[in-house]
Structure formats: C-alpha cells, structure tokens
Amino acid sequence: MNLGALKSTMDAQAATYGMLYQWGRKDPFPSSSTPTGDTKTVSAEVFNADGEVVKFPNSSWTSTESNTLAFSISNPTVCLSNYSQYATNRDWLVEGSDALWGNPKGNVKDDSNKYINKGAKSIYDPCPVGYRVPPADVFLYFTGVGGYVTDINSCDIADANGDGAVDLNDYKYGWLFNMESGSQFFPAAARFDGSYAMLMGSKSGLWGNYWSNSPDTNELVSASGFGFACLAFSQEGKNMTVSASGAGQKADAYSVRCIKE
Questions:
Q1: What gap in Å lies between CA 164 and CA 230, rounded to an integer?
Q2: For 196-206, what is each residue's pLDDT tens digit?
Q3: What is the model's pLDDT at position 220?
Q4: In a 10 Å sphere around its CB, with 0-12 CB exposed, 13-18 middle and 19+ buried, how is residue 180 labelled?
Q5: Angstrom distance (rounded) from CA 203 to CA 176
Q6: Using CA atoms, how far apart are residues 5 and 40, in angstroms rounded to an integer?
Q7: Residue 116 and which of 2, 46, 52, 53 are 20 to 30 A apart at CA?
C-alpha cells in the first residue's frame, strides 16, 4: 500500500492515496480526501494532538531564501516551491543533493542497459523501519518495454472487475498491477505541483506518480533538479499512459511505495 495510506483495497477510494513527498524529503503532504476533484480541491485535513488543524503552506514564489535543507527540517509542513528558479533548477533546494534518499547514482546503467545501483536507506528516507524507498527499476515489468506505453495490452494489469477482459473498465481511481506476490493496487493520488507547491486536486483519481530513490536527468530541458519516477500513469477518458521509468521535478510531491530492505 502507499506510504501513509489508511487502506490498500481498490474499493477504498481516497483512503488508499496516502501521503505525498517531495523527492528527498522525509516529511509528507496530504493528498485529497475525495477520490476525484477539481481546481478547488485541497489536501485532506490533518490534526495535531490537540485536535487543531495543521496547515501546509507553500514557500515564496519569488524567493529561494527558504529553499534549504535546514529550513525543510525545521519547517516540515511547508511545501517548498521552485517557481523562482524553475528555468534552471526544478529542485525544491537551491543546492540539491542526489544522495538524500541513499542512491545518488541510481540512474546509471551497465552495458546491458540495466540499472546497477540499488542504494541503501538514508536518514531522510520516509519509509518505516525495515523498508525503504525503491530503486529505479522496481516496476519496469509493469510495461512490456520497461518504459512509456499508451496501450493497455502493453501493461501487466489485472482483471480487476472480473469480467474476463483487461480493459479501461478495470480502472478505478488507479490500476491493479500484477506482481510476483499477486496483484496490488496502485492508486492515482495526483501530486503536489512543485512550482505552486500545492495539490493538483483536479488530477485526483486520474494521475498516479511514484518516486524512486534515484535522481534523474531530463534531456528535453536544460534545467537540473530531476528525480526518477519508477511509476507514472494517467487515465483520462479513453486516453491512458503508463511509464515505468521517467523524470520528474524534485519539487513535485509524489506517492511513495516502500519496499523491504
């Protein structure tokens, strides 16, 4: 189940979404409390020990003064925006580190095109004891090519509704992917946009994004500050995409699916 989720079954809807994490940060941000949303949808309410609502503000859009590791530790509920440095740096940090989640060379491949570095758990890893953020190649088998596909027949998806066919009708705020241990549900919890540092509520139930512990580069842009998304999918109408490897800006807050150490 997703890190921070209350339930793991497909019929539990938003209770499966869990929390969302900027790449490399230990402290999370809440996803939507509703399975779907619109541009006015905000994060689910979180309460402290006194029953008071915890606020999750964003940092300045015009300054990078707060975009430091020290500030993030002292202010765990502040989502750090990369808006003012977006053209050159997509990180939530001014001076980023690829080692925050314990796998600084996780996107390096060998001569057979396989990822050779799995990494180790770091002090900033948000997963519980005995678990860690997964490496880059953990879900490659979800797609036949190990990358980006737009055809459901190229994905290892289970017949979730039991009608004998694997098609778009098997989607219910996420996909049930086949795994060696049996099928598991991966919900579409949307994400926090790294520039505006707030939940993209209109994509709740439609977009699912999952971080690996690896950094990445995006050859399409000249900016730095990218993390490796080990799974990303979208389902809007009859249009679907699934990617088991891709770049995402580190300032975006994605879901995390922990694996055993």
A1: 29
A2: 999 999 999 99
A3: 79
A4: exposed
A5: 19
A6: 22
A7: 2
